[in-house]
Amino acid sequence: MDPSHDGKGSQKESFSKGSSSHMYDDGPPPMAAPPNTMYYSPGMGYPPGVHAPPPHQGYPPGYAPYPNDYPPQQAYHYPAGPYFSNPPTYHNDGGARAFVRGFILCSCLIFTGLFFATLVLALLLHPHLPVYTVNSLSVTNFNISTTLTADWNTTFSIQNINDKLNGFFSDLKVDLLHKDDMIAVSYVSDFAMDKNEVKRFDVKPSSNGFLFPSWDLDNMAKEKESGSITFVLRITSMVAFKSSTMSTRSALVLALCDDLKVVFQNNTGNGALDNGGKPISCQLYI
């Protein structure tokens, strides 16, 4: 028997033909896949079937191109109002400020220099107060009744101990006190003293015109009965010192010369200062 005419072989052939006619005759052949654009590079042109875009034709008629400085710059104006009719203007005052700072700095330097110069002169010159001493104090015709009558005579000295400054004295007043009560007064005219000069003054305080308390008169009478009375001499004046380069302001100088013991001779009205011939120094107050 021929195997080609076997039933099995006929069946296989007819199946293969049936399958082929079904795969190719029932529809259009499959289309080729488009090229992969992932691997497209410039210069190689566009792939088949892809059309290039039309060239740039510019702006259509009737349209103006945009300017390069879009948007255009706008000028700002200050609105007119009730306070400013014109825009505010600014001035550079740096020069004026620099001038003011320089002026203040120069003034501070000048005043500082003057202060130090005055301080150095004061330290170099260093004015000293004068020295007051009482040389003598005497009384004649001393009498106490309803009032006090007496003739006083006192001598005191003033020494200017400055060797670079001259002294100027004004309104010099000499008061004689007993227990803080004034019993006689005298005045001295204004005068000047050279460097290291000593002046001696003889004054005669007067008791005329004074009203004395009765208790003070009684105390003086009791002291006189013991043989002596203690008095106080008070000297006040305005003093200033000057040189060719500086001067001091006038100041009130008070000299108190206390414990002046006047001894009366043989219970009479005549008495003199008991100081043993030595000047008595006075205490100074300003």
From TrEMBL:
Compartment annotation: Membrane
Basic and acidic residues: bias regions: 1-15
Transmembrane segments: 103-125
Record key words, sorted: Membrane, Transmembrane, Transmembrane helix
Region (Disordered): 1-36
InterPro entries in the record: NDR1-like
One GO biological process term: defense response to other organism
Keyword S-adenosyl-L-methionine included in the entry's annotation: no
GO cellular component annotations of the record: plasma membrane
Name the record gives this protein: Late embryogenesis abundant protein LEA-2 subgroup domain-containing protein
Organism whose genome encodes this protein: Sphenostylis stenocarpa
